[in-house]
Amino acid sequence: MSPILVIARLTFREAWRRRIVTAAIVLGGAFLLLFSLGFFFIRGEAARSGASLEDAAARQAFNVILTAGLYAVNFLTLAMGALLAADTLAGEINTGTVQALVTKPIRRSAIVIGKWLGFAGMLLLYLLVMAGGVIVSVRLQAGYTAPNLERALGLMYLTALLMMTITLACSSRMSALAAGGTVFGLYGLAFIGGWVEQIGGALRNETAVNVGIFASLINPSEALWKRAAHEMSSPLLRAMTGFNPFAGASPPSDVMIAYALVYMLVVFALALGWFARRDL
Amino acid sequence: MTDNAIETHALRKEFGENVAVRGLTLQVKRGEVFGFLGPNGAGKTTSIKMLLGLVAPTSGRGALLGKPIGDRAARAKAGFLPEHFRFHDWLTAGEFLRLHGELYGMGAAPIASRSAELLELVGLAPFRDKQLRTFSKGMLQRVGLAQALLNYPGLVFLDEPTSGLDPVGRRLVRDIIHDLRAQGTAVFLNSHLLSEIEITCDRVAFIKHGEVIRVDELKALANGQTSVTLRARGLTPELLGGLERWGRDIRADGEHVTLSVAEDGALPAITRYLVQGGADVYALTPQRLSLEEVFIQTVGTEGVL
């Protein structure tokens, strides 16, 4: 078996056994439960007030709630990616566990690539289960499914992979804590930048919009989410002006998606380079 | 020269301003057990790390089993037991050996049979399905040794291999090293336990401040050095100075003088010299130098952390 796959399998199994995954499952499960319950009550209210489930307004409401649920899933997934990847290289370098691996007849890059693949697999599994749970819950209870879900999920997965890659790169160079802190800081930056851009758009303030755009260049994660939300939103919702917490006035273009991909590749290359040259 | 298990030529490592290894030039023959001795911070572990590709040399070159260091091929037939051995402790012993066997590029069947053989060898066969986190330090060291031997290596690096072991464990490691030598596998041994080096090694290198001070055959060391203690009165500085003709590391403390001499014939010569010089010699006692004495004399006590 190729060394990359050996490390990938090791990484996946290790991630599976770690408390972070258990915590993520428990948290995720609790979230799904609360979400389903909340949705149940909301739907109940809607039915009582006489609205039919086929009603356009009702479908809009369901769409917003579904989007909100997926926003939470998006955050949980990328948080898990960051938490898993933060300790991986940094911790192993610190304890010396990495020494017995690097001295084998394998390339150092095999270790980085293998870890990336292992985490990518774990994140895919988690995203599918969590997002699937939210989507299925809404569908079962209200018969509503948002449009373009595959595209939205694809963008959510890309977001999680991007943040995981950034964390992995940081982990190859700094301590686990610093790596995690950096990534969560970047997330916060993008989050706030997204709001600044929205507010700027609403108030017609060009500076604010530019600040928001700049933030999304530093970290495209929020922009990717906005695009995902846009894909899922109904045409009616898109036509709505005003404040929408889960979509911006103007959704990010395909260029932004391409940018995020290139960004991830560049960061991955950095991770490979740093780890290859590092004295252990 | 592919005859050597290890060859280095002026390997140097600088960490910024700090020169960890000054210029390492040595050869270790195939099937030889080579000991590396030096105080803490002398550059022993850094040297091993350079040979194994963990640390890139600032300058110089080297070869493992005929292939340049840093080359993956060089590491295929090399085993390594790190000093602070830490492994993925959620793996069982069997899974651990399988992981490292796969990283060596071994097939599933050879891994299975070799793992069983090695677990038996290090006395851990009953623990094959137990997680490493349940292992004592000594057990971890032994499974680490098994890991180093997986791919029938031509060269094994052991960094303090017996530090966590009880006397039975140490004996086990010693026996394994003897067997390796008999099979033609070279062993490069870092150890503070001088008694272990004395028993197991063919040659030993003394390293200090990143430089190899001397390399000796252990047999030669045993034969070559004799420590002489003498007690005499009337010793003048000139008289003491004259002793340099026969010995070195002369230390005088009042009436007591110690020095080390290269051959037995020096003893009567020294006695005659001192008596003729007007000293009263009360005692002259030769002692075979232990490796410890040579260590302290060669490497000194300065710079010991």
Report on this structure.
The complex is a heterodimer of chains A (280) and B (305). Chain A is mainly α and 280 residues long. Helix content of chain A is 82%, strand content 0%. Chain A has one domain. In chain A, helix 3 (56-95) runs antiparallel to helix 7 (176-202) and helix 6 (149-171) packs parallel to helix 11 (254-277). The two termini of chain A are 26 Å apart. The model of chain A has no long low-confidence stretch (mean pLDDT 87). Chain B has 305 residues and is α/β, with parallel strands linked by helices. The longest helix of chain B has 16 residues, at 167-182. Chain B is 35% helix and 30% strand. The mean pLDDT of chain B is 87.
Detail the topology: elements first, then pairings.
The complex is a heterodimer of chains A (280) and B (305).
Chain A: H1 3-17, H2 19-48, H3 56-95, H4 97-102, H5 108-142, H6 149-171, H7 176-202, H8 206-218, H9 221-232, H10 235-239, H11 254-277
Helix pairs in contact in A: 1-5, 2-3, 2-5, 3-5, 3-6, 3-7, 5-6, 5-11, 6-7, 6-9, 6-11, 7-8
Chain B: E1 4-15, E2 18-24, E3 27-29, E4 33-37, H1 44-52, E5 59-64, E6 67-68, H2 72-76, E7 78-81, H3 93-103, H4 108-121, H5 137-148, E8 155-159, H6 167-182, E9 186-190, H7 194-200, E10 203-208, E11 211-217, H8 218-224, E12 226-233, H9 237-242, E13 247-253, E14 256-261, H10 266-276, E15 280-288, H11 291-299
